[in-house]
Amino acid sequence: MSIIQVQNLSFSYPSSFDNIFEDVSFQIDTDWKLGFIGRNGRGKTTFFNLLLGKYEYIGKISSSVEFNYFPYPVKDKSKYTYEILEEICPQAEDWEFLREIAYLDVDSEAMYRPFETLSNGEQTKVLLAALFLNEGQFLLIDEPTNHLDTEARKMVSDYLRRKKGFILISHDRQFLDGCVDHILSINRANIDVQSGNYSSWKLNFDRQQDHEEATNERLQKDIGRLKQSSKRSAGWSNQVEASKNGTTNSGSKLDKGFVGHKAAKMMKRSKNLEARQQKAIEEKSKLLKNVEKTESLQLEPLEYKSKELVQLTDVSVMYDGQMVNSPISFNVEPGDRIVLDGKNGSGKSSILKLILGHSIQHTGTVNIGSSLIISYVQQDTSHLKGMLSDFIEEHQIDETLFKSILRKMDFDRIQFEKDISNYSGGQKKKLLIAKSLCEKAHLYIWDEPLNFIDIYSRMQIEELIQTFKPTMVFVEHDHAFQKRIATRTIKM
Questions:
Q1: Cβ–Cβ < 8 Å for 351, 317
Q2: Pairing of strands 472-475, 337-341
Q3: Is residue 384 pLDDT above 60, yes or no?
Q4: Looking at residue 147, what is its pLDDT?
Q5: Cβ–Cβ < 8 Å for 177, 44
Q6: Over the stretch 229-250, which tens digit does the pLDDT of each residue have?
Q7: Whether the predicted model's global pTM rises above the 0.85 cut
Q8: What Å distances lie between residue 343 and 140, 149, 329, 338, 346, CA to CA?
Q9: What is the signed CA dihedral for 332, 338, 342, 347, rounded to 10 degrees?
Q10: Residue 154, CA distances (Å) to 165, 175, 221 in order
């Protein structure tokens, strides 16, 4: 066991005037299983890069352990898997590699295949296994779930629960609950470390916000009351001061000493009220700095006149003449929110593309309703680049509405002036979702929409769908999202 100490850390990118981190201090134990959470663009991956020594910064990071990063950059994917694993962990024996990948339900024959022939999920698993075999290293795991199906996420979560010594960036609530014992959270105003899993952290965070809201309300009332008292006190003081040279109602001269004493007493009371008011204002200013407000999003789904939008009958996707999935049949009716669930490579994305009208070899029949308008969120964001204004013009989006949605999804205005290629993975995905929300459609087809998207935005999107009830066919491996949104599950 050792300590990673972060002291007075400040950092900003050379191209930006805004600090990502400003005078941040905290410490973590190298035995912890640490979940790392925060809104998109808050600096989670940046912090990993600082630990890895990639950027210069102000302050101090001290540690006696070496850091390693997942996903490991594989330069030559044509090599056999065992060769790549030996590069990552040269001191490990073959039997140790085989033991670790067996824990993750990867067949031993994968070791003797070219790495590029493994599925994305298999690649994730074997790289994690190799990295954990490096003794004395603290692993920085950056969003491992993006290429994992629901079953694989459970398996990797169970695997990580048996390990120690890592920081894990993930926005999958159930995945985090299954494998971490501490939470490191980048909040609006600070960085906080707490013991427990995501659910216990969220409970504590919400309680703190509720307490601060109640305290804020009380202080607002105190400030209002003190202002009124201060005005009355000042009025009395002025009246007494004005009467120093006056007379009583009976015509006798006032005692100037008494009047002066009374004026001083009033002034002192006024000053005390002012000091109490200032203290209440200062206490109020310390509150609500970490409130994560999510404004409600809106959607305008179109009503489809027919009872049936899409019909699939005995459909199997074919690759190189081979059936990828067992034949499936289902209808899409207004109000349906159908999730396609299955392992990686089972043809889920291909089914979505068939509904979109793509030319993909398949068996069975796909019937699409007449004049059906579809809005599509694709899985891949690697093609996104250029300025936001060009993206808006290319897709003929209502600029005001589009930017309003992005602002509600926690985009700063400064992001509108940046090249999209410099956006984080979550920001790029939000761009595609915001585009879809601008489109009036009968059917919304979303392919893994939550990849890289932060937890608060996930809940914001869940609320949107539950409120406006659009007709949807989607693929998403976040079990909590599936459970709240899907009206029907089609197993692939």
A1: yes
A2: parallel
A3: yes
A4: 78
A5: no
A6: 666 655 655 665 555 555 555 5
A7: no
A8: 26, 5, 18, 16, 6
A9: 40
A10: 20, 7, 49
CA gap 281, 367 in Å, rounded: 64
Q: What is the C-alpha separation between 129 and 98, in angstroms, rounded?
A: 9
Dist CA 245 CA 356 (whole Å): 91
Pair 463, 408: CB distance under 8 Å? no
- Computed over every residue of the chain, the mean pLDDT equals 88
What percent of the chain shows pLDDT beyond 70?
A: 86
Neighbours of 465 (CB within 10 A): 20
Amino acid letter, 369: G
Q: For 335, left (φ over 0), alpha (ψ -120 to 50), or beta?
A: left
Residue type, 395: H
Give me the pLDDT at residue 258, please. Answer: 55
- CA-to-CA distance for 434 and 377, rounded, in angstroms? 10
CB atoms within 10 A of CB 10: 13
pLDDT digits (tens, 9 = 90+) for 184-200: 999 877 889 999 999 99
Selection from 104, 106, 128 nearest residue 117 by Cα: 106
